[in-house]
Amino acid sequence: MWLSAIPIKPKPVLSYDFEGDLQLINTLLGAPMPRGWKTENIAQKLDVARLAEYVGTHGGEHHALHDARANAYAFR
């Protein structure tokens, strides 16, 4: 699996903002995350106003890459 090729030091973190996304990735992988990976739901760490600002400026809401960029912008 391609995730296994990512170095585990420093510990990689798969960040998500919707529990269904983690379930989906586990289903797609056919297994849990590789050993050494951490998962973190960051939904409560997002500044809602900054998230809306980003989407309003850049669009693309509900597209994985745009959502990831918006989350990075809104993360507190």
UniProtKB/TrEMBL annotation:
This is Uncharacterized protein. It comes from the Bacteria. One of its GO terms (molecular function) is nucleic acid binding. It comes from Caballeronia terrestris.
